[in-house]
Amino acid sequence: MMTLNHTGVSHTVFRLLGIPGLEDQHIWISIPFFISYAIALFGNSLVICIILTKRNLHEPMYLFLCMLAGADIVLSTCTVPQALAIFWFHAGEISLDRCITQFFISHSTFMSESGILLVMAFDRYIAICFPLRYTTILTHTLIGKIGITIFLRSYCTIFPIVFLLKRLNFCKNNIIPHTFCEHIGLAKYACNDIRVNIWYGLFVLMSTVVLDALLIFVSYVLILHAVFHMSSQDSRHKALNTCGSHVCIIVLFYGPAFFTILTQRFGRHIPPHVHILLANVCVLAPPMLNPIIYGIKTKQIREQVAHIFFPKQK
Residue 313 falls within a domain, yes or no? Predict the structure, then answer.
């Protein structure tokens, strides 16, 4: 569990506590966690299968939605099973390498989702402002390149943090009051100076998630400007309706994320279990609700779901 080096003892195994202060309620807390995870797996897998198997859904909007559903599955699978193992079996022991791997996958996937939401906003902008050129601009080749760029951006920005963590000596403590591993949550147990970790983590956050949110805001300002200059009220209503599900997902994704960041930075008097629960909402709520929102708001997906479960009904 520990190694010796020239700076002293460094922990190589850590223990995740789950939700501190609510240990007696872990069994009850695990119920919504399990239900949310099951819905996320089923809903997103169903969305991916429908989009990939129906050629009429091989349009840019649905292909980006397919990427989002895949990222949702990875994000929830990377974190929720670990939490359930803690709640059910008290299996919180995790090696340093596994902890860093979990952090790398969860954080890079979270940033990938942010990038996907940005390109979905760009997709809506093209569809509304340049409808006649929509399919010629967003070709399948370009969509593939965009997808690769999104994931490369996430992995390349997070990858240096792996080395920033590996250089540290964790001699303070090996008990982590959380359900999964985080960058600063792990780094703060090091005896080394972690200012580089803090500043690089802030740079990554500002250059990816915050920048994406600002660009999405600009995209929707341009979209609204174009919509309110349409001559037909029916056209305005139809254009706004196509953005409804995307706006819901944006609020669902960025709302809890920014609220969590603010409480971590300024909510020093907020109980620790509230911080942990908010962090879990960020990885639980979007993957669970995204397929439900798109299933309800998108006619084509709704019809395909109805055809799968009620094949005899017209």
Answer: no
Q: Provide CB contacts within 8 A for 20, sequence distance 6+.
A: 177, 272, 273, 276
- Reported as a single tens digit per residue, the pLDDT across 276-288 is 998 999 999 999 9
| Terminal-residue alpha carbon distance, the chain | 62
pLDDT at position 312 over 70: no
H or E element that contains 8: strand 8-11
CATH number, domain of 279, equals 1.20.1070.10
Q: What is the pLDDT of residue 114?
A: 96
User: CA dist 125 to 55, 69, 217, 301, Å?
Assistant: 23, 21, 11, 21
pLDDT score at 26: 95
Q: How do residues 212-254 score in pLDDT, each as one tens digit?
A: 999 999 999 999 998 888 878 887 887 788 788 889 999 999 9
Give 9's strand partners.
Answer: 4
The structural domain count of the chain equals 1
Residue 21, in any domain of the structure: no
Overall pTM surpassing 0.90 (yes/no): yes
Tell me which residue has tokens 């922990």: 11
Residue 290 inside a domain? The answer is: yes
- β-pairing, 13-16 vs 175-176, is parallel
Instruction: Answer whether 198's CB lies under 8 Å from 183's CB.
Output: no
Tally Cβ neighbours within 10 Å of residue 296: 14
At residue 193, the pLDDT reads: 93
Burial-class residue 133 by CB neighbours within 10 Å (0-12, 13-18, 19+): exposed
Which tokens sit at 307?
Answer: 């055809």
Is residue 99 one of the residues assigned to a domain?
A: yes
Question: Which residues make Cβ contacts (< 8 Å) with residue 113, sequence separation at least 6?
Answer: 68, 71, 72, 75, 253, 286
In terms of residue numbers, what domain contains 122? Answer: 26-306
